[in-house]
Amino acid sequence: MTAQLSPSYAEITLREMTAADLPACHGLSQAVSWSHRLEDWQLAFRCGKGWVAEANGRVVGSALYWAWGKKYATLGLVIVSPDFQGRGMGKKLLVTLLGKLEGKTVRLHATPEGKPLYEKLGFVTTGEIRQQQSRELPPVTAPALPQNCQLRELNAEDAATLSELDGLSSGMQRLALYQALLETDSSHTQKGLLLTRAGKIAGFGLLRQFGRGYAIGPLIADNLDDAKVLVRQLLSECSGKFVRVDVEADSGLAEWLEALGLACVDRPTTMYKDGEPLKAAGGWRNFVLATQALG
Fold it and tell me: Which of 273, 290, 286 is nearest to 72 (CA)?
């Protein structure tokens, strides 16, 4: 019988992540009490790439990146197994990924525990995210639509349009993400809505299965009032359900969501390396994140 080495003496190797690693990565997120489902990992991996740390054939660390066009990228799902923490594994994974993203402006959302490491790697704080959630959402009434406004459901043919608006608001080119979310047999999107005013697009938002229940995002609009219309309409269909909404702290949505029964449960720090957030064109703004990892 082969003796198992203790974590202190196990040999650790880094290698590129494969789809076969996703169940083990899901296990890592469970070990640190993150709510991601296996399906959430599958979506993240489909749109990006990752690396894992392995010890004696066991996956003990993960990190993923998403290259959204020529200029921007995001990093996330950086996890080290609790029994292997404190050995520099997270730093090695991040340095490996950053080496793949040279020349790009990289965004991530840091936990308090991870922030000192990110600062050492050159990331600077640019803002904050408010994670608003309700374990059992109180009833939310559907909004009265502003004059000349209409709502319609999104379909797969809308992916390119949504990606274009995303680019205007964030600089990220995320067509692959929208294609995955809107494909006909998608198991991720519960409902997507497009808001128009006098026939012109005013914003869009998605309600998705995620984590312990449902999440709203991404949600992009050209003003706060239109963003609230989209959020309220999506929330009106979630009475009694677990719902999560990750918003920019300065968006004007956080306090409004509190009043609707979604409390702030976490405040990750937004950080950038080798650049700054895009100054949005034409008033467009990404009010609600897809996820903290995807941006």
Answer: 273
- The reported pLDDT for the residue numbered 118 is 96
Cα atoms found within 13 Å of the Cα of residue 203, Cβ hemisphere only: 25
Largest CA distance in the chain: 75
User: Which phi and psi angles does 259 have, rounded to 5°?
Assistant: -65, -25
Which residues lie closer than 8 Å to 5 by C-beta, 6 or more apart? 11, 55, 56
54 phi and psi angles, rounded to 5 deg: -130, 140
Q: Collapsing DSSP states into helix, strand and coil, what is residue 269? A: strand
Instruction: Please check whether residue 231 is in contact with residue 195, taking contact to mean a CB–CB distance below 8 angstroms.
Output: no
pLDDT tens, position by position, 43-74: 999 999 999 999 989 999 999 999 999 999 99
Tokens of 7: 């974590």
Closest of 184, 188, 183 to residue 211, by C-alpha: 188
Residue 56 class from Cβ within 10 Å (0-12 exposed, 13-18 middle, 19+ buried)? middle
Residue written as token pair 């050209």? 222
pLDDT tens by residue, 161-179: 999 999 999 999 999 999 9
pTM: 0.92
Going by their DSSP bridges, the two strands 189-197 and 149-153 should be labelled as antiparallel
- Cβ atoms of 267 and 249 within 8 Å: the answer is yes
H or E element: which one contains 193? strand 189-197
